[in-house]
Amino acid sequence: MYRVYCNNSPLYDLRDEDLVLISPIVKIGENTAGSFEFSILPKHPHYEEVNELTSVITAYDGDEEIFCGRVVEITKDLYNRKKVICEGELAYFNDSIQRPARYQGLTVRGYLETLVNIHNQQVKNQGIDKTFKVGAVTVQDNNDYVYKYTNWESTLEVIKTDLLKTYGGYLRIRKENGVRYLDYLADYPNTNTQVIEFGSNLLDFTHDMVASDIVTAVIPIGARLEDVTEVEGLDAYLTIKDVNGGVDYVYSQEAVKSYGWIFKTVKWDDVHVADNLLKKGKEYLSDIQFAQITLTASAVDLHMLHVDMERIKVLDRIRVTSTPNGLDRFFPVSEMTIYLDKPSNNKLTLGTSYSKNSLSTKTESNITSIKDKIEELPKKSEILEEAKENASQLIHSATNGHVVTTADEQLIMDTADKKTARKLWRWNLNGLGYSKTGYNGTYETAITMDGQIVGERLVGGSVDASKLSVSYKSSVEKQISDAISDSNDYTDGQLKSYWTRVEVETAIKNTKDAVLISAKETATSYTDDKLKSYSTSAQIKVKTDSIESEVKKKLNSSDLSTKIQQNASAVKIAWNNISKYIQFESGELRIYDSAVSSSQKLVSKFNYNGCHFYRNDYYVGKIGTNELQSDSSKKGLNFDLESNGAYMTWASKDSSSANVYTMKWTYVQKNKGWGNYTSGELHAGCNIDMHGWTLKNPSFEGGGINGTLNFVQVLKMSSDGTVASWSNGCKMQFKNGILISGTWNG
Description:
Helices cover 15% and strands 39% of the residues. The protein is of the alpha+beta class. The protein folds into 7 domains: 2-91; 98-185, 3-Layer(bab) Sandwich (Phage tail protein beta-alpha-beta fold); 193-336 and 344-350, no CATH class; 377-461, no CATH class; 474-533, no CATH class; 647-684, no CATH class; 703-743, no CATH class. The strands form 10 sheets. Strands 1, 2, 3, 4, 5, 6, 7, 15, 16, 20, 21, 22 and 23 form a 13-stranded mixed beta sheet that branches. A 10-stranded antiparallel beta sheet has the order 32-33-34-35-36-37-38-39-40-41. Helix 1 packs antiparallel against helix 2 (155-167) and helix 5 (359-375) runs antiparallel to helix 7 (473-487). The longest helix is centred in the middle third of the chain and has 17 residues, at 359-375. The N and C termini lie far apart (134 Å).
C-alpha cells in the first residue's frame, strides 16, 4: 500500500477518498537523485502546503520509504491544478560548493567525509534538513592515497567526478534513528529473495543483446597440458570429455530450439580440474554470457500480492530466469519506475549499461589508469579509526541474510539456498571464509586452521596489504610508453598491435628491475612453497600479524645474515647472530643488546627529547635539548642524570694499554656516594689550570683559606731597578681566612 506525505501531512492514501493525487510516478536509479511527479487538485485538504523548496515529499510502500526529496518545480493549469516535480535527497549536495583546495594522502572514506563535512557546514540551519553523515564505505583506493583538487564545483559534481567516475561504486542513502547516512559501496548490498521468471511473474522484457552475441553451446578449454601432444606442433589443453560422456561441449537445449546451434570456445587458463572446467562452462552458458546485457522488464512485484515477500529495491541483485533464452543469472536493479496508482505498469531496468569503446581508446585508457596508479606512490595513512567506523557502519547497515546450519558447517548467505547464493560466509572446522562468487567459489577473505589470514587488506594499525609492493618507475614507464606506442600503430586502418590491460600489467611484472608482488600473490606463493621463484637471495613471509624478511650469505664458513621484522607496533632490523638489533618503535629509534642476558636489553634510544642511555635495564640519563622554566626563550644542551644513575663524569684512558677509564671531573648523585666521593658534590681527579682567568666568589670550607703561604722578601734593589738581594723562607699561616702567624726578615 503506497502512501505519500508532505512534511507531516498526508497527501496520498487510497483508504481516504480525499487523499488523492493524479498520476503519481516515482523514478529512482543507481547513483541518481531520483524524481517524483504528481498533480494535486485545489480541493485537496493539504493543497496549500505543497510549496517549492520548503516542502519535503516522502513516499512509502507500507512502512518502507521509497522516495524522499524536496519540491523543486510547481506549475498550475487553468483549473489551478498543481503539477509538482520533486528531486531526491542526493540532489541536496547541489546546494553546497567545494572551494579551491588540494587534498593529498587521504583514504576514500576520509575524502568523502571531508566533502560531506564542508557541505553540512554550508546547509545547516536552513529550514529543511539537508545534512548527511558518512555511513559504510567499502570502495577503496589501492594505495589509500587520494590526491584530488576542488575548484568551485558543487559537492555532488565532485562526488560524481572524483569518486564515482574514478573508483566506481554505488551511493545509497540510508536512515537509522533519525540520522541520514550516505553509504558508498563497492558492490550491490542486497540479494533479493524474489525470482523474476519467464512465464510466471515476468510479463515481458527487452534487452540490448543482438543475435550475434547469443551462444547456445560452449566448448570450455582449461590449462595447457604438460608433455601431452594431440596434434603435432600444437599444445594440448584440458577439456571436459572425460567428465561429460566423451563430449567436449555443453549446451542449452531450450536455447538450441530457439536459435539453433551456435558454438563458442571459452578458455580458462588457470583451471586444472575437469570437473571445475565443466562447472565453468555451464555457468558461462546460463550466466556469464549475459553479463553485459541490460533488461527492461515488466514484472509483477510479488510483494504486492504477498506482503511477506521481500520488496524489490534499487541496488538489489535479483535472479532472472528465462528458459527459452537459457538465461539464469542475477542482475542488479539499476532503475525503477513506480506508478503509485497503477502498480501493474511498474518497470524495472536490470543490469548496467556498458560503453563499447574502440580497442585503441580502451587500451590507452587502461594504460593511463595503470600509469596513474604508479604515480601515486604508497604513503602510510592513519586509517585504523576510519576502518573501525566503517566496519561498524557495515555491520549496522546489514538488513538481510539467511543463516543455514548443517551437520558440518554454518552458512550466512544472501539467499536461503547455497546453490543460488552468491555472497556468503562459510564456517567449518577448517576455518571461516567469505565468498562473493558462490558456495564453491573463491574465498578471498578467510581465516584458516593453519593460522593464515587471507584478505585484500589487513587493517590493524600498521599492515595494509595493498602497500606490500615495490615499484621502480623508470623501467615501468618505458613499458607503458612502448605499450601506448604499439596501441597507436595502425596498418591500412586496422589495429596492427595493441596491448590489453592484462598484457601491460604482465609486462610491468616481467620488467627485471620492477618487482610488483601483491599481498595475495605473496600469501599464495608462500603457502604453495613457490616464493623462491621471485627471489633466490631472500625469504619473505606474510604472517597473521607481521611481515618478516631475511637475507643470508655464507662467508668463510660463517653465516652472515640481516633480518627485518615489521609488526603492528614496531620495525626491527638485526644482523649476524640476531642478538644485537635496532628497532623503530613509537616514533623513536631503539638499540637493543639481547646478548647481555636471556632477555632483550635496551641500550639506548633516540627521540625528539634527545639520546637516552640505559645500563642493565636501568635508565641512567640523556643528552638532549631543553629550555629554562623561568624563560622559555633560553634554549640549551643538557646532560641529564636520572635518579637511578650514581654519577656523571668526564673520564679518559691515561694510556693505550690502560684497561679502565680514569674519572677526571665527576658529579656524584645524592645518596649515591662511595669512598672519597661524597654524594651531592663535584669531584676533581686532576689539577685545574685557570690559565690566568679569575676564580670569582669562591666559598671555602670552614669560612676561609686554611694553609701556609710561602713567599720571597726583597732586601735590596739595584740602580737599574732589578732585585739585588732577597730572603727565602718567608711565610704566612692562615686559619679560616685569618693570619695567625708569619716569618720573614725585617
